[in-house]
Amino acid sequence: MKNALQRWEITTAKPKSTEAIAELCSPLEKLPLVGNAKDVDFSITVDGSDTEVEATRDHPTVKVGYLRVAGSMVQLDVFRSLRNVRYIDPRVVRQSQTEYAFDVALPGSQLARPGMTGIETWRSELDAFLLNSRFDSSTTMTLADGLLALHGTKAAPAKRIPLRVCPGCGLKARDENTLTVDANGGVCPSCQGHLYLADVLRTHEEYNVEGSNFTPLGRVMTASERLMSLCYLDFFSNTAPTVLQHTIFITDGPLAMFGPLAPLKRRFQTYLSDMSRWCKTQGLVAPLMVGIEKSGAFVEHAEQIRDLIPVGHVMRLTNDYINRISGRPASNQYGVDEFYGRRFIYRTSSGDVLVITVNPAPGISPYDGSVEAEGWEAYPTLRLICEVLDSLRTRMYRHAVVPVALAHSAAALPLGVGRSVLTMMAQQNIPGLKVDLQAVQPPTYFKR
Question: Smallest Cα–Cα separation from 367: which of 287, 236, 255, 284?
Fold first, then answer.
């Protein structure tokens, strides 16, 4: 065992040579610039949080999933002005932010509607969530509308979306017309089973009838976050296009879709390319969309090489470099099936690092392995995005920017006491479960 351990090395460790890093870096001022950072007055950040709780000690396999997704709009000029203030008034900070959040409970293992299986219940409840969750309280557009918009064009959302496989009988679609769904669902021509719009997300493929469903719950959170951002983008382009010129859209995490959601990556890439082309016809800067990572292998690696990246420089991560630090074969096409943006590491003017994902120019696939996709010119908004983020750094936690920190606070599900409350909600509302105070351990003020 000792000999085996001594044979290994950490792939993401700090390189012994600085040359591999230096040749991939560029000072920010040498990159193409579109727009002006001072014109970006607002940020819209979407973040989510999820948890899964056991119902009772008598039924430890009965689990309920809870999800919260929040959108936060921040007036950036207010935060920039606070740099020159010695004592910050928290009321000013609060007044500069507007947030909207929605919550949902989804069935875990051993839970079903009468007459339905567990998977059918999951599909049905998820569909109801998409149909009833508005991305903002002042609009009627729902996440379901966003999903239809994603599969259409800017001028015309899709009326129906094709499915590849029937979740009920496993029928494989012969073409795009064999299995289709709209907002009201559809019917399988083979088993006559009901199809849901939510089936497009394919999260039911990972549903576990006997154990944890934290994985599909996380997929729902990711899809909801991305659809919420798309809804904002679609809404402003249709009602107030000039707002796009003054807004940066921030996502917590990379601009990517993983697992069963991965096929949606192509839809996001196509949709955002079409939106960029439309913005150009309107004389607007392409939508400023960026994903920011707070943790993970790339964030850890960025910290390892931070001192090798000069302050104010951006590092591009080529396929060759990514494969080398992740232990993948040199021929691997990293990210080609999941990412609709490309990762970069930016060392800010304050010296810390940000791992960001930025959309490419229209017509370019960010990880197709081509020289064009790995060049600086393919990411025209990169410099402007970095300049905006540089002015929004915060020390609330590592790798944080103000809009993400505020959105994270709005989306966070309560821990500790809050988790006990969620457990108690399940016990008091699911028929057949008794309140188990030993499992819940309610706070003392509930006992008074």
Answer: 255
136: tokens are 């903002």
Query: Taking Cα atoms as reference points, which of 111, 121, 37, 112 lies closest to residue 77?
Result: 37
CA–CA distance, 35 with 410 (Å, rounded to integer): 30
Q: Decide if 107 contacts 128 (C-beta within 8 A).
A: no
Q: CB–CB of 212/52 below 8 Å? A: yes
Residue-wise pLDDT tens for the chain (448 aa)?
A: 777 767 777 777 777 777 788 899 999 999 988 888 888 888 888 888 888 877 666 667 788 888 888 888 888 877 666 565 555 555 656 666 687 888 888 998 888 899 999 999 999 999 999 999 988 878 889 999 999 999 998 888 999 999 999 999 999 999 989 999 999 999 999 999 999 999 999 999 999 998 899 999 999 999 999 999 999 999 999 988 998 888 999 998 999 999 999 999 999 999 999 999 999 999 998 899 999 998 899 999 999 999 999 999 999 999 999 998 888 888 889 999 999 999 999 999 888 899 999 999 999 999 998 999 999 999 999 999 999 988 776 555 565 676 676 666 666 665 443 455 555 555 556 565 555 544 444 433 334 4
Q: Which of 120, 145, 121, 115 is nearest to 132 (CA)?
A: 145
Closest by Cα among 148, 179, 160, 166 to 205: 166
Q: How far apart (Å, rounded) are the C-alpha atoms in residues 98 and 136? A: 11
According to DSSP, the residues that pair with 346 across neighbouring strands are 314, 354
Three-state DSSP class for 97?
strand
Tokens 């993983």 found at? 258
The model's pTM is 0.86
User: CB count, 10 Å around CB of 374?
Assistant: 19
Query: Which residue type occupies 283?
Result: G
For residues 111 and 113, give the distance between their C-alpha atoms in angstroms, rounded to a whole number.
7
